[in-house]
TrEMBL record:
Alphabetical list of PROSITE patterns matching this protein: FBA, FBOX
Protein name listed in UniProt: F-box only protein 6-like
Highest taxon above the source species: Eukaryota
InterPro entries in the cross-refs: F-box-assoc_dom, F-box-like_dom_sf, F-box_dom, F-box_only, Galactose-bd-like_sf
Lineage: Eukaryota, Metazoa, Chordata, Craniata, Vertebrata
Coiled-coil residue spans: none
Source species: Cottoperca gobio
Keyword Ribosomal protein: no
All copies of domain F-box, residue ranges: 31-78
Residue span, FBA domain: 99-276
Name of the gene encoding the protein in the UniProt record: LOC115010448
Length: 280
């Protein structure tokens, strides 16, 4: 019995059904060559495989596997199991697979956003007055885990980071084709006893580091004897066109009384992230 089965199996390969022909490349597996697997079982198998294998390997096997690997139900269920939820449940992603991978890779692309590592990873653009300083927060931040902030002095202080999207895993073809939402966020607060100013400029840059799109709102000014509360600056870049390869994030400020020391604007919890448009 075993010998007969072995002979049959060998003859199928020898007949050229799975072998390459002299005239061209290897023939691909047809549906009838594979053991039939119910779609729901195949989907469950894919749900337990690493997602990149499903996309780069499984979907190339045959039409049935490709259908399951590309199915909305597979990626919607993967999002559910891994806890990737829409903030606005009334909106449905056009592409659940894209939504899944954007959620999975979502993270803050800025390094040292709260000053826990002093000025590490930041390029000092302007260092006026008594220069930048890292200090404890004066009033509690909405995120209680944040205990430090950057503080400016009596002349303009600005610092910057340049984000290389390719190095962060977002290659040029992905950025050009999908143009995912780019969300920026920054928290800033004045001292109650000193007027101050806050500035921010975020640019999307091409491969030559030339601006494609820019967010640069007017300077925010605080008068002396203010409420000292934390404020959040946010912006979402969308439909910015092809060519974006870098993101330049620059912010800072100063005090308006020209007092020696660190009475200027306080900044912390800066963030740049690539995310689903539905989740911005």
């Amino acid at each position: 019995m075993s010998k007969a089965m072995g002979a049959t199996h060998s003859s199928r390969w020898a007949s050229g059904r799975y072998a390459s022909s002299a005239a061209g490349p290897s023939a691909s597996l047809s549906e009838e060559d594979l053991f039939p697997v119910p779609l729901e079982i195949l989907e469950e198998i894919f749900l337990n495989l690493p997602p990149h294998q499903v996309v780069s390997v499984c979907r190339l096997v045959c039409c049935q596997w490709k259908e399951v690997a590309d199915s909305e139900s597979l990626w919607r269920e993967r999002c559910r199991r891994e806890g990737y939820h829409r903030r606005d449940t009334s909106k449905i992603p056009k592409d659940w697979r894209l939504f899944y991978f954007l959620c999975k890779r979502r993270r803050n692309l800025l390094k040292n956003p709260t000053g826990e590592e002093d000025m590490k990873n930041w390029q000092i653009v302007e260092n006026g007055g008594d220069h930048w300083k890292v200090d404890e927060v004066m009033v509690p931040h909405p995120n209680e885990s944040i205990q430090k902030n950057f503080v400016t002095s009596y002349r303009m202080c600005r610092k910057s980071q340049l984000i290389d999207l390719e190095a962060e895993g977002y290659n040029s073809s992905f950025m050009d084709h999908f143009q995912p939402a780019i969300r920026i966020s920054d928290w800033y607060a004045p001292r109650w006893d000193c007027g101050s100013e806050y500035v921010i400029c975020v640019e999307l840059l091409d491969h030559r580091k030339k601006p494609v799109q820019m967010f640069a709102p007017d300077t925010v000014e605080f008068e002396q004897w203010n409420d000292q509360k934390w404020n959040q600056m946010t912006h979402v870049f969308q439909n910015y066109g092809p060519g974006v390869r870098y993101i330049s994030f620059t912010h800072g400020g100063k005090d308006r009384q020209y007092w020696a020391g660190w009475y200027g604007i306080r900044i912390t919890d800066s963030c740049v992230e690539i995310c689903p448009a539905l989740d911005t």
